[in-house]
Amino acid sequence: MPVAIITGASKGLGRALAEALAARGWDLVLDARNAGVLKETARALEAYGTRVTALPGDVTDTWHRTALVTEARALGSVDLLVSNASALGAEPLVRLEELPLDGLRRALEVNVVAALGLVREALPALRAAPAGTVVTVSSDAAAEAYETWGGYGASKAALDQLAAVLGAEEPGLRVWAVDPGDMATDLYAAAVPDDDGARPEPASVVPALLRLLDERPASGRYGAAALLEAR
């Protein structure tokens, strides 16, 4: 069966996608920082009869990234790499004049540097896979100027550019940067705790990601809303 590595997989979009792939028979290597929540997620997904390896850790740790790829290879391959783990830079979000530079560095390390590091670690296996695929989870803040979203948006814009260049450099792979749109996630709640407006559940975005996997369009940046509308 195909094997996917998903970072930030203990809850939110990462968990929702992992569950959808498990239902399709994919084997999974899952990452998150909270070991307890990640273990519970893995236990739930094993009910689908698939093999699930849960590795708690921080994606900025080189050894942790190596372990994720090693575990995927042990399951057979690396067919799909999903960089979903994200850091905001400040919680709650603040204007640029107040943004701690250490917070910005953390956002860049998690959202950009670690994502590239994991791709580099997995690249030989991705090239060898029948349909090697990289998905980076983007944000509309990468393309639009929203007050207080500057640090996070800048990191996601950088991630978009890395994905675009990777797609050009690796024509044998599919590399998709996906903007999921607004979702009801812990990340959004931490970013804007005073905003209690209704938002879609992460599971509502998963069909857009599955469509990409099924149809395998050209590498590029895709919005979940457009993918869902076109179904």
TrEMBL record:
Its EC number is 1.-.-.-. One of its GO terms (molecular function) is oxidoreductase activity. InterPro entries: NAD(P)-bd_dom_sf, Sc_DH/Rdtase_CS, SDR_fam. It is an enzyme of class 1 (oxidoreductase). Transmembrane segments: none annotated. It holds the Pfam family adh_short. Keywords: Oxidoreductase. Gene3D superfamilies: NAD(P)-binding Rossmann-like Domain. SUPFAM superfamilies: NAD(P)-binding Rossmann-fold domains. It comes from the Bacteria. Belongs to the short-chain dehydrogenases/reductases (SDR) family. This is SDR family NAD(P)-dependent oxidoreductase.
